[in-house]
Write a structure and sequence with these properties.
By secondary structure, the protein is α+β, with helices and mostly antiparallel strands. The protein has one helix at 3-32, and strands at 59-61, 67-74, 77-79, 83-86, 90-97, 102-106, 112-115, 121-126, 131-136, 149-155. The strands form 2 sheets. Strands 1, 2, 3, 5 and 8 form a 5-stranded mixed β-sheet that branches. It is elongated and about 75 Å long. Bound molecules: dinuclear copper ion.
């Protein structure tokens, strides 16, 4: 027994702890798909009205049949509203905000992201159940936050 022996034990113990904690992060990322939000794409929040995409927030269909929904959140509404998308097809939401941070949650689904001024939040979901869904803002954004809702209509896709 000497001092170096104890030092080695502590070094390995510290390294082991680091691996354990890092491992916990990678396991949750891989297994539970818990990830940092979206990609990093910026947009000038003061120039949204003249922006080629967010100047006219809308639902657009790509050539391959997939759907892109460009959404602008602002106090205290979402546009477009309602949002109409087909069922059983990948729908990519692209969100941004014209003023403060808002939430965008399609209640009862896993479609949920923040709309952040200056950034574009993007995620893709496929809605299996046709119907009407409530969209709620889940970030406190001002006095009428509780009234900030929208509607998502999932339509049965044509065969
Ligand atoms: Cu927008 Cu709360």
């Amino acid at each position: 027994m000497n001092v170096e022996f104890y030092e080695r034990i502590w070094m390995w113990a510290a390294a082991g702890l680091l691996l354990l904690f890092l491992g916990a992060i990678f396991v949750t990322v891989g297994v539970q798909a818990i990830q940092p939000p979206s990609h990093i794409e910026t947009v000038d929040p003061t120039a949204l009205p003249t922006h080629p995409e967010f100047g006219t927030p809308a639902v657009r269909t790509r050539a391959d049949g997939s759907v892109v929904v460009s959404v602008v959140a602002q106090m205290f509404s979402f546009s477009p509203d309602p949002i109409e998308v087909p069922a059983n097809r990948p729908v990519t939401f692209r969100l941004t905000s014209a003023d403060v941070i808002h939430g965008f949650e399609v209640v009862g689904t896993n479609a949920n992201a923040m709309a952040i001024p200056g950034y574009v939040s993007q995620f893709t979901v496929t809605f299996k159940e046709p119907g009407e869904y409530l969209i709620g803002c889940n970030e406190y954004c001002g006095t009428m936050h509780h009234n900030m809702v929208g509607k998502l209509i999932v339509k049965k896709a044509a065969p």
